[in-house]
Amino acid sequence: MKRLAKSFAFAMNGIRLCFAREPNFRIHAAFTLLVTAGGYLLHISPQEWVCVLLCTGAVVCMEMLNTALEQLCDLVQREKHPVIGTVKDIAAGAVLVSAVVAFTCGIIIFLPKIIRLI
Any catalytic annotation for residue 70? Predict the structure, then answer.
């Protein structure tokens, strides 16, 4: 149980570090709060909540993995290197793909409800 508590503490520290140091993480966190509030106000269905949670979770996780990979790359190779640049670009692309998919799901879920309000 003590080991599990330590693991949880390390994981929470990772989230805290991302929030404190990474502007893009804070942007994704803000959008997550905005979408959550929108879901609550627009009374989305349980199935829609699952989609929203999976999408927002995926984007935040991808941002954290991108951050970790960038940190590791910077530790391994301080100078510019084409392979490191490629690795960082691919990781950033993964964040972008997850964000575009999440945005598209958000449009599918929220736009009809917003249009009905107007």
Answer: no
DSSP code string of 61-105: HHHHHHHHHHHHHHHH--S--HHHHHHHHHHHHHHHHHHHHHHHH
Distances (CA, A) of 83 to 71, 93, 114: 15, 15, 45
| pTM recorded for the entire structure | 0.90
**28, 59 Cβ separation under 8 angstroms:** yes
Give the span between the Cα atoms of 63 and 32, in whole angstroms. 13
Q: Which of 22, 48, 63, 79 is catalytic?
A: 63
Nearest-CA neighbor of 71 among 30, 25, 4?
Answer: 25
| Cα–Cα distance for residue pair 53/79, rounded to 1 Å | 38
For residue range 51-67, what is the model confidence (pLDDT) as tens digits?
999 999 999 999 999 99
Compute the chain's Rg from CA coordinates.
Answer: 17
